[in-house]
Amino acid sequence: MHSFFDHYNYWIFVILFVIGLYTVMSRTNLIKKMIGLSLFQISVFLFYITLGKIEGGTAPILIDDPNAVYSNPLPHVLILTAIVVGVATTALGLALVVRIKEAYGTIDEEDILQQEDAR
Amino acid sequence: MSSLISQAPILAIIIPLIGAPICALLRGKTFPWMFTTILSALSFWLSFDLLLLTNDVGRISYEIGGWAAPWGIEYVVDPLSAFVLLIISGISTGVLLYARDSINSEIPAARLGLFFAAYLLSLAGMMGITVTGDAFNIFVFLEITSLSSYVLISMGEKTDRRALTAAFQYLILGTIGATFILIGVGLLYAMTGTLNIADIADKFASVEDTRPIRAAVGFLIVGIAIKLAMFPFHSWLPNAYAYAPTIITAFFAGTATKVSVYLLIRFIFTIFGWDFSFGEMPLTAMLMPFAVLAFLSMSMVAIFQTNLKRLLAFSSVAQLGYMTLGIALATESGLSAGILHMFNHAIVKTGLFLSVGAMFYVTRSTELKDLAGIGQRMPLTTFAFVLGGLALIGVPLTPGFISKWYLIQAVLERGDMIGYGLVITLLASSLFAVIYVWRVVEVAYFKPAPEGAPTGEAPYTLLVPVWIFIIGMFYFGVETHLSVGFAKSAAAFLMGGGS
User: Fold this and answer.
1) CA-CA distance, A56 to A67, in Å (whole number)?
2) Contact: A99, B154; criterion CB under 8 Å
3) Do B190 and A30 touch (CB under 8 A)?
C-alpha cells in the first residue's frame, strides 16, 4: 500500500491547483483573481515537470554508461510552451485590468457591477 | 497543382498564421481588411479542395517536417475535420466581406492593422485545432484562438465599456477551461506515453480501466464544456457576444463554439472510443440532462432579453444544447444530426448577427426599445432578420427544420419513454423560439418608430453579405443533399472506428 507521502510531488500539484482555483472564484479584486489564475496555471506546470522525472534518472543527455536511466525530456519541453502561454495570459489579463481601471475607476468586481446596475 | 494539394493541410493554417504579423504592420482603412479577406479566401479555397479530396480517399495524413507520425507532429484531415474546416473558413470569409464599413465605424483606424492581425491569429488557431492530430497541439492552438479572441472582444470597448469586463470574464473562464484540457492531455500522456491522437486511441483500450484515465476524461470533458459554453458553463458567452464588435460576434457565433463541439466529438469518438465513452463511462446520462436543460432554460431566458444581441447569444447556448444532445444520443443518426446542426446553425446565426450589425450600423444601438419600427425604417435588413429567425424556430424550407427533423428522427430511434420525452422538450423549446422571435417581430413591425430615429437602409456593402448568408441558408434548407451527405459520411466515418 502506498503511503500518503509516496506521491508527495503530486500532492503539491493538487494543493497549489486548488488554492489557485479557490482564489480565482472567491476574490472580487481583479488583480487577486489574476494571481489565483497564475497560481492555478503554475501548478499544472509542476504537474508536467514531475511527470517526466524518473527515480534515479539523470539529465537526458547521452552518456557512456549502458545502464544509465534518463528522465523523460518531452514533458519539460511541452511545458515550456505552456509557460509562454501562461505569461501571455497574465500579460493580457493585467492589460485588461488596466483598461477596466481607466474605464470604471475601480478594480473591484462588485463595484463594477454596482456601477452597471446604477446606469 | 498536385504538389500544392499535398501541402494543403499545413497551408490552410500557415497562411493566416504568417499573415498575422504582416497584417499588424499594415496601415490605413482598407489595406489590413483587404489583406485579411484575401488570406481567408485562400484558406477557404484550400479547405474546399481538402473536403473534396477526403470525400474520395477518406483520411489524409500530413507529417510536419517529414518526421514520422507517433514522434513527429501529424496533421490529419478526415471527413469530419474537412467539414469543420470548410465551415470555419467559409464563415470567416463571408463575415470579412461584410467587415469593412462595419468595423470602421466601431474601431479607430489606427488600430485596424492590429485588430485584423488578431483576427487572423484566431482564424489560424481554430483551423489548427481542427486539423491537428496531436493532443498537445490542440492545447497550443486553443490558446492561440482564445488569447486573440479575448483581445477581439475587448475591442468593443469604444461602443460599450462592458466589453472590457466581458473579455476579462471570458479570459478567466477560458483559461480555466484550457488548463483543464492541459491536465487531461498530461494524464493521457502519462498513461499512454504518446501525444499522437491515433496512437493514444490505439493504446487507450489497454489502460482504460485506470483511475488516471478516468480523471483525464473528466478534466477533458469539463474543460471542453467550458470552451463550448455548454450549460451550466455558459455564463461568459452572452456578455462576450453582446459587447464584442459586430463582425467578431458574427464570426465567433459561427465558428468558436463549433470548434469546441468538434473537439468534444473528436475526444469522445476518436480517442476514448464509443465503447469506453458510452459503455464504461455514462456519458449519455451525464451530457443529456445538461443538453435538455440548455435548450429549455436558455430559450426561455432569451424571451426576456431586452438587448437583441444578448437574445441571440442566449439562443446560441440553446442551439448548442441541440448539438450536445445529438452527440449524447451515441448513435450514428444522432451524431450526424449534431454535425449537421453545427453547419446549419453556423450559417443561420452568422446571418442573424450580421443583420443585427446592419441595424446597429444605422441606429447605433441593439436595445430592443431603440429598434422600434425598424421594419419600416430598414425593410430589407429586418426582413433578412425575420427569415433567419424562422430558421431558429425550425420552419420548413429553412436549415433549422432540416436539423430538427434529423434530430427528432434520431431521438425517436431510441423508441423508449425517454425518446418521446425528448421529442416533447424539443418541441417546447421550438415554441419558446417562436416567442422570442415574435417579440422582435412585434417591436420591429408593430411599434411606432421613436421621434427623430435614424432611418434608411444600411449601405450595400453590409446588405449584400447579409443576404448572401440568408439566401445560402435557404439553399441549404431546400437542397440538403450536400450538407446532409457530408454530415452523414463524417458520422459514419467516426462510428466506423476509423481513426
Assistant:
1) 11
2) yes
3) no
Asked if A41 is an interface residue toward chain B (Cβ–Cβ < 8 A), one would say: yes
Q: Which residues contact B281 (CB under 8 A, 6 or more apart)?
A: B214, B217, B272
φ, ψ for residue B381, nearest 5 deg? -60, -45
Which residues on adjacent β-strands are paired with residue B62?
B75
Amino acid residing at B399? P
Q: What's the grid cell of residue B354?
A: 450580421
Nearest alpha carbon to residue B212 among B242, B183, B245, B181: B183
Rounded Cα distance between A40 and A17, Å, is 5
Provide the b/e sequence for B72-96 (b: ≥16 CB within 10 Å): ebbbbbbbbbbbbbbbbbbbbbbbb
Burial class of B280 by CB neighbour count within 10 A (0 to 12, 13 to 18, 19+): middle
* Grid cell listed for A114: 454596482
* Whole-Å CA distances, A110 to A30, A107, B486: 10, 9, 48
With beta carbons under 8 A apart, name residues in chain B contacting A116: 162
Measured distance CA(A40)–CA(A34) in Å, rounded? 10
CA atoms within a 13 Å half-sphere pointing along the CA-CB vector of B234: 24
Q: What is the CA radius of gyration of chain B?
A: 22
With a CB cutoff of 8 Å and minimum separation 6, the contacts of B135 are B185, B188, B189, B195, B196, B197, B200, B271
A37 at B interface, C-beta within 8 A? yes
CB B147 to CB A88 under 8 A?
yes
CB B82 within 8 A of CB B493: no
Residue B25: all three cell numbers together: 504592420
Residues of A in contact with B151 (CB under 8 A): 92
The better pLDDT of the pair B363, B496 is held by B363
Least confident of B59-73, B95-109, B151-165, B388-402: B59-73
Contacts of B68 (CB under 8 A, 6+ apart): none
Cα–Cα distance, B187 to B102 (Å, whole number): 45
Q: DSSP 3-state assignment of B245?
A: coil
- In this predicted model, what pLDDT tens digit does every residue of A73-98 receive, in sequence order? 889 889 999 999 999 999 999 999 99
Phi (first) and psi of residue B74, to 5 degrees: -115, 135
B367 touches chain A (CB under 8 A): no
> With 80 as the cut, is the pLDDT of residue B10 above it?
yes
Are the beta carbons of B326 and B335 closer than 8 angstroms? yes
Whether A89 sits inside 8 A of B143 (CB atoms) is: yes
- Residues in a beta bridge with B63: B74
